[in-house]
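Q: My labmate handed me this sequence with no annotations at all. I'd like to see what the chain might look like in three dimensions before we decide whether it's worth expressing. Could you predict it?
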Amino acid sequence: MQQSVSLVTLGVADYERAKRFYEALGWSVAWEADETSFFQANGVVLVLWGREKLAADMGISDESEGWGGIALAHNVASRDEVQDVIELARANGAEVTREPSQTFYGGYAGAFRDPDGHTWEIAHNPGFGLTNDGSVTLPAN
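A: Here is what I predict for the chain of 141 residues:
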């Protein structure tokens, strides 16, 4: 598996307030869809998304012990790679919280919590570019 963090998603209580806050800090939304803002930050993408929606997407309860409302994502080039990484994580002690499956955005993804409870999504998103070093590039808005 290639080492890369593609996205850091912050689960926010008030989407519009969070978006205004980051824009006031000088961040520019590179792509926005369905109350989700994507900020290109060098090779990583910072995402703002409703906290409850993020928890549900990761397959855990928003009230789950140890859930901090943050998910890391590792994007890969194919559905098979999603399966491989999820199985590797499972074999090494991760709790798979969402089995790999088709996503609402036309991709394929699964999620797990590492042995310390940190949440990861492993995703293949055909709508995002993926460079050789694992960096994600967003589509034009």
